[in-house]
Amino acid sequence: MSCCGSGAELALLAAPDPRAADAEVLLSSRLIGGGLRQTDLSVPTIHCGGCIRTIEQAIGALEGVIWARVNLSTKRVTIKWRADGAPPPFIATLERVGYEAHLFEVDAEAKDAALSELIRALALSGFAASNIMLLSVSVWSGAEPATRDLFHGLSALIALPALAYSGRIFFRSAWRSLRHGRTNMDVPISLGVLLAFGMSLYETATHGPHAYFDAAISLLFFLLIGRTLDHMMRERARLAVKGLARLAARGALVLQDDGTQLYLPVGEIAPGMSIMLAAGERVPVDARVIKGLSELDVSLVTGESVPQPALPGAMLRAGTLNLTGPLTIVATAAAGDSFLAEMLRMMEAAEQGRSVYRRIADRAAALYAPVVHLTAALTLLGWLIATGDVHRAITIAIAVLIVTCPCALGLAVPMVQVVAARRLFEKGIMVKDGGALERLAEIDTVVFDKTGTLTLGNPRVVDADRIAPATLALAGAIAAHSRHPYSRALAATAPASPPRMSLDAVSEHPGCGMEARIGSVTYRLGRPEWALTECDGALVGDASVVLSQDGQRLADFRFEDRLRAGATQAVTELKRGGFDIDIVSGDRERPVHQLALELDVPYFAGVLPGGKAAHVAALACAGRKVLMVGDGLNDTPALMAAHASMAPASAADVGRNAADLVFLRENLSAVPQAIAVAREASRLVRQNLALAIAYNIIAVPVAIMGHVTPLVAAVAMSGSSIVVVANALRLRGRGGLGTRRAERAANRPASTMLEAAE
Amino acid sequence: MMDYFYLIPIAIGIGLTALVAFMWSLKSGQYEDLDGAAERILHEDDAPLPPGRG
User: Which of A12, A318, A491, A624 could form an SS bridge with A619, CB 3.0 to 4.6 Å?
Assistant: First the structure.
């Protein structure tokens, strides 16, 4: 029914517990008045008009829904529903029509007030600049004094509101920076614009020939373009990253003394409370198991790739995923003292330890502003001494300020970074801000995490073609009923459309495997010692899972963690590019050793989260600029400590937020690609800065000599801005670190399941 | 020369109208979903005509 929905079969496995899901929807929705609640969902697979219709019809038909609207650009659905009833089953409905949806939290009002302010400021300054320019052209082409005065007056009238409204973005930032005893790019901009406006006002009042309204306002206009683009780039990356699935628990079903169950947000769970944890849910706080048998996926927390058994008495860390059976657990720590919170504290410590990075534009401004202001002051002094004409001296000094006003400089850096971010976006890489690109360009060492970063963190069946298709199909059919990673791997490997087998009774035995009946025959899929009546070590070998028929072996399966696509090429390319690479993993020695051998890089296994951050900090102390690539909770302190950091889209929420760049595609070639683009961007930024300086070297002497009329100022400024923008557009983002061939191989279309927001 | 000065308020007036129109369209959310708007015109049924007309 929909052209592009897929994954409806997965709905079988998703949505752990409808009660918990409802409560989670309620928790993340917000009251909007009129007895209505609003819920925002992120649906990354929306991509055409048909999707809009399918989704709006499906959601709109639900009981209690007042209004549903799809936003195709941001791939989100906004739903308004009556607050008096239970939340309608949005996520289940979307899954039924074939879309995977995640709850999306909107930061209430703060949404993009900044962006709309920028756009409004841009519109006003654009209007003012174009109209003033129109009037100026007639002044330049030699209007009579009376006409000129009239036009100057009109220009002043138009310029004043534009200066007050559009200019305050710069004035505010400049004032904030000055108050803290620093200068940034906005200080010379504000000073130049304000002085130019003040002087022009005086000229107009005294019927003088030279007014710089056009220069002042078009300067604001050009700079606002750069600033708006910069803001949009960051906002888009932030939204795309936020729309990904939330991996931490928002709350849990707490078992109360009177036997009833209540859904509580994570923050309200106190030590000693009993929590019902269904299969498929994440452990909300550190806890101990009191009842039930299951297996846990700990890969995001510790980096271990093999599922860990959970028995009564076992201690669980917050953030691990319960795989196979329901568990009753007792909280041993509040959310604020759990593993997650500990990671957050380590992150803060790591961030404080890192040396503060100053962006290129700010460093340039720190040099630039004193030079410009000193030149203007000296010009003033020089003309005063030479001619004694106060008015003339001031006019020329201000002309120097206008000509040197860092229009090109203010555009030089953001333009390049916006273009670079755009190129990276096309490759599925999100950049949080321009500073991240500058830092990424300086990298000389790359530290990889193993599980989930170099590998996909989910296992794959080895030698599947060795097994008879019918047997594999049977195993796949049984495995489809479980969410254990091995079962999922089997279900994915099995031939897609076997003659539909009817399994009579399928049951899961946590910690052991799956049992199914067809007629009177019992099939078991699981641990050898459980599935086989007599377990012969020599026969089974090192198989991790066997399929048995009434206790007799039918087939055995081996699993290995799959390397991320392009991992080998990426590492080879980085090595060829002269980077030092190592692997730091929380996983055990054996799998890390194997992987490191395959990639031929040094490794550290069994490293604790603090150890990872310490390793990165030690490298930094040795003068290295480290890029940390990691996905787990245990990597987040190291991500913070590193000079630059990258995380895959599958990373833990905290990690995604901590990382400077997030790559959405499966392919690890994103790492060398991002570095290549960052380096190209950094080269262009330098060129642009050089161009801006060259322009000043020519323009400043002319201004000091007193030859700069408003016409010369307007032409020089627009000209230099256009040159800088054109140079930024040269960034293609195609040049690889290595050879062309390696790059083409890495660019082969990766399976892109998480293409959130194009 | 002075005869043509009536053109100036007209020019500025047109500019102002465009500015106000842009601000209004921005405020009424017409730039929130540019891709969606392009698709919706193909898929959405026409709204039923208000009663008493046509």
Answer: A624
Q: Which of A72-81, A125-134, A249-258, A414-423 has the highest mean pLDDT?
A: A125-134
CATH of the domain at A442: 3.40.50.1000
Whole-number pLDDT of residue B19: 94
Q: What's the pLDDT tens digit per position in A559-618?
A: 777 788 888 899 999 999 889 999 998 888 888 888 888 888 999 988 888 888 889 989
Residue A653 counted as domain residue: yes
Residue A408's domain comprises 113-240+357-417+690-728
Structure tokens, B36: 């969606």
- In chain B, pLDDT over 70 holds for what percent of residues? 76
Q: Which residue has the higher pLDDT, A185 or A127?
A: A127
Residues A452 and A582 in one domain: yes
pLDDT in tens, A523-567: 888 887 787 776 555 444 455 788 888 888 888 887 777 788 888
Distances (CA, A) of A389 to A198, A382, A392, A441, A562: 19, 11, 5, 51, 79
pTM, two decimals, is 0.77
A316 and A438 co-located in one domain: no
CB contact under 8 A, A49 and B12: no
In sequence order, what are the residues at sequence separation of 6 or more whose Cβ sits closer than 8 angstroms to the Cβ of residue B6? none
CB A663 within 8 Å of CB A674: yes
* Domain-located, residue A293: yes
Identify the closest residue of chain B to A56 by CA–CA distance: B44
Residues 60 through 79 of chain A touching chain B, CB cutoff 8 Å: 70-74
What is the DSSP annotation of A260-283?
Answer: -EEEEEGGG--TT-EEEE-TTPBP
Interface subset of A 157-186, CB within 8 angstroms of B: 158
Q: Across the interface, which of B23, B32, B34 has its CB nearest the CB of A123?
A: B23
Interface of B with A in 20-49 (CB under 8 A): 22-23, 26, 32-36, 39-40, 42-44
Contact (CB, 8 A) for A114 and A228: no
Check if A301 contacts B (Cβ < 8 Å). Answer: no
Backbone angles phi, psi at A460, to 5 degrees: -135, 150
CA distance B50 to chain A (A): 20
Query: Are A482 and A617 within one domain?
Result: no
Same domain? For A630 and A548 the reply is no
CB contact under 8 A, A49 and B39: yes
Mutation to test the B interface, candidates A131, A139, A165, A239, most B Cβ within 10 Å: A131
In a domain, A424, yes or no: yes
Q: Is the pLDDT of residue A351 over 80?
A: no
- Does A573 share its domain with A452? yes
Helix H segments across B1-54? 7-27, 34-43
- Cα of A57 to nearest chain B Cα, Å: 11
pLDDT given at position A535? 59
* Residue A463 is among the residues annotated as catalytic for this protein: no
Would the pLDDT of A291 be above 70? yes
d(CA A562, CA A543): 17
pLDDT in tens, A323-350: 888 888 988 888 777 777 777 777 777 7
Give yes or no for a contact between A413 and A688, defined as CB atoms under 8 angstroms apart.
yes
Report yes or no: A116 at the B interface, CB cutoff 8 Å: yes
